[in-house]
Amino acid sequence: MELYYSFSALIVLAAIFSYVNIRFLKLPGTIGVMLIAMLVSITIRFLGHEYFPDTTKQFFTLFNSLDFNEILMGAMLNFLLFAGAMHVNFADLKDQKWPIATYATISVVLSAFIVSGLLYYAAGIFGFHIPYIYCLLFGTLISPTDPIVVLGVLKQAKVPKSIETKITGESLFNDGVAVVMFAVILQIAINPSLELSVPAISLLFLKEAGGGILLGLLLGLTASNTIKKIDDYKVTALITLSIVMGGFLVAKELHVSSPLAMVIAGLIIGNYGQKYAMNAETKDYLTKFWELIDEVMNAILFLFIGFELLLIDDLLDEILLGILTIFIVLLARTLSILIPVKSILRKNTYTRGSLIVMVWGGIRGGVSIALVLSMPNSEWKELLLEITYVVVLFSIVVQGLTVGKVAKKVLKDDSEEAREKEAFESSHL
Q: Are residues 179 and 223 in the same domain?
């Protein structure tokens, strides 16, 4: 019953905060809920013990009893990735397959090493002598863009389709790379004597990522072919629910990537399944069903992120290092996009504006917080949690609220520059 009470409290709070946001703040739903939760957290921390001690105690008990890492990485992420992937057009991903594959793999690794190197030296300036392996751990957990936040923000940002597809595709697939890399580096950090060779790491990645992709293919095709034999939207909804919940259990048992499995399964059901296995009524009901789940899960997730302030002892102690880390992460994001563009992806044309949107649209979120919370207790965990929270907060609020305006401005400048160049060339013919 304890779990039921906790979940009930979260749903009630999410409903209240969502109403307040829609009624008064009128911000994007997820960001509004997170900001309200943060304001409540700040009020509780500074005034709660004096003015409403019983409620404050209940809040701290509730959020200290919840395992954010297990809830997000073990449950919510699978629902959100599946729901997000269902609404992605596979043909769009196919058109951008090489940029997406590059950003989801090479760019993540590049970013992790750039962040770790810069943080290692920057931390020393502020008197924090963080071992390099922990800096690399931070670089790994902060480098993947968060699919949950990105999908939610890009719905309202109105960026060009090709750029939206690149950012969305990257965010859907880069979690698998980051989680495997994080797991390997964490083992080295915990056990310095552990030796992992390149072949061993490659085999681990192949098993996790490749196994997740194969499982997703199996789940998606099996579900689609099963749905094809019936004509009932209620049973179809149950089948897709079983794919997400049962698929996670299978992935956990096989030690393969459940995020990648959910992405692939969602893509297949949302494209092949809806096209060949469902009638118009089933397709309509299923789309609305998963849109509703997506909205509810997102509201709860951002409620969690806002209330994470209750779990941080003193954010002000490391605020300067956190602010500097924001610039480090943005620089690493820029280089991890720019280097492949100038080398591997030379055949793809990118304007200055599109590159700026790619950088600014790479938003971090709950996945980074979940990964840092999954670390065992150490003298560095609290510090990494605090700077992670600062970066995620900036990314969601500042980048999330401005990416649409940034895209409109820089892409307009691109168009004007192209017209001026064309006029100049015409006048010199």
A: yes
Would you write out the chain's pLDDT as a tens digit for each of its 429 residues?
566 887 888 899 999 999 999 999 988 888 899 999 999 998 998 888 888 888 888 888 887 777 777 787 777 888 988 998 998 888 888 888 888 999 999 999 999 999 999 999 999 988 888 999 999 999 999 999 877 777 767 766 677 777 888 888 888 888 778 887 888 888 888 887 766 677 777 787 788 888 999 999 999 999 999 999 998 999 999 999 999 999 999 999 998 988 889 999 999 999 999 999 999 999 999 999 998 998 888 888 889 889 888 878 776 768 899 999 999 999 999 999 999 988 887 766 678 888 898 999 899 988 898 889 888 888 899 999 999 999 999 999 999 888 888 888 887 776 666 565 655 556 655
CA 319 to each of CA 325, 387, 414, 427: distance values in angstroms, whole numbers, following the listed order: 10, 7, 36, 54
Phi-psi category of residue 144: left, alpha or beta, with phi > 0 → left and psi -120 to 50 → alpha: beta
Choosing from 23, 38, 64, the residue where a domain stops is: 64
- Let me know: does 29 contact 21? Beta carbons within 8 Å: yes
Please say whether the beta carbons of 118 and 328 come within 8 A: yes
Dihedral over Cα of 78, 82, 88, 93: its sign: positive
Query: Which contacts qualify for 18-23: CB closer than 8 Å, 24 or more apart?
Result: 18/299
The answer to whether residue 429 sits within a structural domain is no
Angle separating helix axes 161-190 and 147-157, nearest 10 degrees: 160
Same domain, 11 and 125: no
232: left (phi over 0), alpha (psi -120 to 50) or beta: beta
Q: Which residues contact 246 (CB under 8 A, 6 or more apart)?
A: none
Tell me the C-alpha to C-alpha distance, in Å, between residue 171 and each of 42, 217, 401.
Answer: 31, 19, 18
Q: What is the domain count for the chain?
A: 2
The answer to whether 355 touches 338, Cβ cutoff 8 Å, is yes
| Residue 308 DSSP one-character state | G
- Is 426 among the domain residues? no
Contact predicate 142/387, CB 8 Å = no
CB of 167 closer than 8 Å to CB of 150:
yes
Q: Are residues 276 and 237 in the same domain?
A: yes
Helix (H, G, I), strand (E, B) or coil at 159: coil
| 89 backbone dihedrals φ, ψ, rounded to 5° | -75, 120
Which domain covers residue 344, as residue numbers?
A: 68-420
| 196 domain-assigned | yes
- For tokens 């990494």, the residue is 384
The answer to whether 292 touches 80, Cβ cutoff 8 Å, is no
Inside any domain, residue 10: yes
